[in-house]
Amino acid sequence: MIARLHHVVALVVIGLPLLPMLALGAELSLKYDVYYGPLRVVAIESRSQQADGRFKMSTHMQTVGMIGSLFPWTLQAEARGLMADGDVRSESRVVDSVYRGKRQHFEVRYSTDGAVDVGFDPAPDTRERELVPVELRRDTLDPDAALIHMLGVLVTGGTCSGTLRIFDGRLRYDLQLAEAGKAQVATADGSIYSGPTRLCDAVVEPIAGFPLAERVKGDERARLRYYLAPVLGGATLIPARVDLSGPRGTLKAYLVDAQRGG
Questions:
Q1: Rounded distance, CA 169 to CA 107, Å?
Q2: What is the mean pLDDT of each run of 10 residues along the chain (262 residues)?
Q3: CA distance 187 to 239
């Protein structure tokens, strides 16, 4: 499952650390552990910064334990963008990843006119996955900016609803959002939070760029459930847990550390 879903883990979790930054201030550090059943499979560490209407987020992800030995994968990413008057806009995203010794580097530039350019090193193998056409990249956000936008709506009294158009450099997909009520969560697998949460569901609608061998039917689309809670106090919501469900099972990401400042 991890061998085929490592791209989905990245698209889902890479935006998590920036979600609360809109309201928490200049700098925030978060850590998540991702589990597949009883196995801890991915560790995530990230730091986000906000200053003068701009955001920057650096994230490191890697497979761990037995899964890390069988499917070694690391990813280092940096996203930058603008935040002003409730509007969020992507500027750039740079990603370096290594999967089973195969390195991939790409840079994405988001222009103010809606155009999006991407460069790869090395060039991707189009026998394995289609490239996202230029016209499908237009007027999209990177995953971080898209999720900041979602939280901004919630913080100002809005609902988890609508569609977010996302392009992360390789994958073009929509997140279809919906309110899902409330739920109590308990600490588990090192999680630092227990208590009430607000639920926000999202369906990942693949548009382009996904591996050719993994085209999914409508009823097999990946589905996300965000468990949002005031982990650091106040009204600010942070994902205390995120579930990713698909045809091969469910991955669960638990917040295991959250720190303001350095």
A1: 7
A2: 48 49 64 92 88 86 93 92 82 94 94 95 84 94 80 72 90 92 88 92 89 62 88 79 86 90 61
A3: 13
Is 22 in contact with 151 (CB distance < 8 Å)?
yes
Q: For position 4, what pLDDT does the model report?
A: 45
Classify 228 as helix, strand or coil.
strand
Q: Please provide the distance, in angstroms rounded to a whole number, between the alpha carbons at the two ends of the chain.
A: 35
- What's this model's pTM, rounded to 2 decimal places? 0.86
CA 84 to CA 79: how far, in whole Å? 17
Phi-psi region of 25 (alpha: psi -120 to 50; beta: other; left: phi over 0): left
CB-CB contact of 45 with 59 (8 Å): yes
All residues at 6 or more sequence positions from 214 whose CB lies less than 8 Å from its CB, including other chains: 4
